[in-house]
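Budget justification aside, the reviewers requested a transparent look at the raw inputs and outputs of the sequence design task funded under Objective 1. We therefore reproduce one unedited record. The lines immediately below are the structure tokens for a 370-residue chain.
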């Protein structure tokens, strides 16, 4: 004989939102107070309390980031002393926060420091499974000793031969350039898939005074173009078009690499963070097996972050695209190289945008029809 039993289980299918790491920024730099602390800041923060009343490298760049970050800007700051190692401040911060961008306001002086920064970013990925992009400041011009030609040569030497795809080098030409860029990258008026070059976003805000060299010559646009050619990230101007804008945020990827600009790395990192969570939920779960039905079902399962990122909006008859193109049937492939091992191959396709536009005009001198 048997007695009736009823079991009711709440099943967790992992359909909730993924944590948003994107646009979380940690700014590390020299400041006179709260050294060794990691503090949140937003548009309402009193920076004189958080970072001290005196002018400091960190405070100057935080102010610039806030000005360019939009109304919902928020970030974290880690003040350090002049002789402190920024990597130790990052390690401390990672105990409590998970940023997308790490901004080091203390200028680097050698190419090896940029390589070391990339090594640190990779160690964060391997040790903590966190993907960070490092914006590294380089020095502005010494207007007592350097001409623009000498400054350009010194800056070019910093990036020459460096392969560091998780690192961007930003010259502090105006004293707060890296803060301006950090805020622009985190402005919610645009997506993480947008280049900071995007003109419709508006001009940069709060940029410091225009620098001059030791001859009194103001920063020439030709120097900006040459800095960009040498893979540094800086402002740009358009002749007879008001405002100061940004160029590409160049990453120090190797020639021919996929991640030479920051927007490519940001979208692949976002997808990777979400896919990792989905993969963890499938460990030891026999719903992921080598049957045809399971493979097709799990293609849909792992495609979820791509579908979310590809969502576009049509407003007033105009389409605002998602962060990537919509995934296709061949965007995901699942293979079983061993009985208990699965490999998932995922294709993320960014949406093209125009960074060089050529308009060709002709005259139509044909006679009017009789």
């Amino acid at each position: 004989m048997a007695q009736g039993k009823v079991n009711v289980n709440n099943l967790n299918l992992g359909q909730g939102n993924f944590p948003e790491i994107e646009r979380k920024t940690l700014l590390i730099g020299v400041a006179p107070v709260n050294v060794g602390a990691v503090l949140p800041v937003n548009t309402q923060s009193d920076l004189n309390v958080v970072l001290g009343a005196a002018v400091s490298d960190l405070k100057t760049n935080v102010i610039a980031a806030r000005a360019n970050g939009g109304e919902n800007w928020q970030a974290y700051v880690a003040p350090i002393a002049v002789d402190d190692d920024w990597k130790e401040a990052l390690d401390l911060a990672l105990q409590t926060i998970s940023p997308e961008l790490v901004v080091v306001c203390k200028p680097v002086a050698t190419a090896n420091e940029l390589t070391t920064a990339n090594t640190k970013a990779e160690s964060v990925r391997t040790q903590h499974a966190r993907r960070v992009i490092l914006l590294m400041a380089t020095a502005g011009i010494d207007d007592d000793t350097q001409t623009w030609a000498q400054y350009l040569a010194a800056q070019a030497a910093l990036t020459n031969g460096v392969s560091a795809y998780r690192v961007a080098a930003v010259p502090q030409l105006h004293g707060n350039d890296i803060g301006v860029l950090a805020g622009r990258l985190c402005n919610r008026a645009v997506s993480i898939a947008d280049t900071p070059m995007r003109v419709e976003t508006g001009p940069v805000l709060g940029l410091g005074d225009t620098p001059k060299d030791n001859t009194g010559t103001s920063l020439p646009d030709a120097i900006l173009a040459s800095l960009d050619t040498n893979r540094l990230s800086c402002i740009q101007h358009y002749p007879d078009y008001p405002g100061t804008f940004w160029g590409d945020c160049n990453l120090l990827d190797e020639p021919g690499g996929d991640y030479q600009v920051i927007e490519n790395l940001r979208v692949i990192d976002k997808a990777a963070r979400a896919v990792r969570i989905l993969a963890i939920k499938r460990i030891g779960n026999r719903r992921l097996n080598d049957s045809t039905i399971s493979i097709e079902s799990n293609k849909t399962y792992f495609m979820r972050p791509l579908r979310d990122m590809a969502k576009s909006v049509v407003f007033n008859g105009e389409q605002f695209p998602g962060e990537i193109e919509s995934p296709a049937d061949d965007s995901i492939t699942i293979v079983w190289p061993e009985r208990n091992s699965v490999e998932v191959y995922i294709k993320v396709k960014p949406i093209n945008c125009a960074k060089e536009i050529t308009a060709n005009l002709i005259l139509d001198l044909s006679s009017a029809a009789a």
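DSSP finds ten helices and twelve strands in the chain. The first helix runs from residue 47 to 50. Computational costs for records of this kind are itemized in the attached budget.
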